[in-house]
TrEMBL record:
It comes from Candidatus Uhrbacteria bacterium CG_4_9_14_0_2_um_filter_41_50. Gene3D superfamilies: 23S rRNA-intervening sequence. This is Four helix bundle protein. InterPro entries: 23S_rRNA-intervening_sequence, 23S_rRNA_IVS_sf. The lineage of its organism: Bacteria, Candidatus Uhriibacteriota.
Amino acid sequence: MPQTYKDLTVWQRAVELTVAVYVLTRQFPKEEIYGLTSQMRRSAVSIASNIAEGRYRSSRKDFVRFLHIAFGSGGELETQIYISKQLNETGTLDYTKVDSLLDEVMKMLNAMINSLTKN
């Protein structure tokens, strides 16, 4: 096990994802500041935050539980991205980086959960 959550590649990628979501949502219309912008940012922050919190819990079982929560937040973000792509005001933006990072983080979380629950 890595010493801190900062040593986890999945946490590092989740932080990159959060920054990418912030950059993307800065381009959203101002009327979305309390709608999709806020929701997407909170979901992205939640992924990295739950990885960090889980790593500092006292047991492997707790860590896995928080990884599941992070995975759920990834699902929320995936849905919010999908919705924003359907809207005229935000559908034409470049989602390439966000999509790629989210896909990578979700695969890493899934693999980590599977690895930790096998033993």
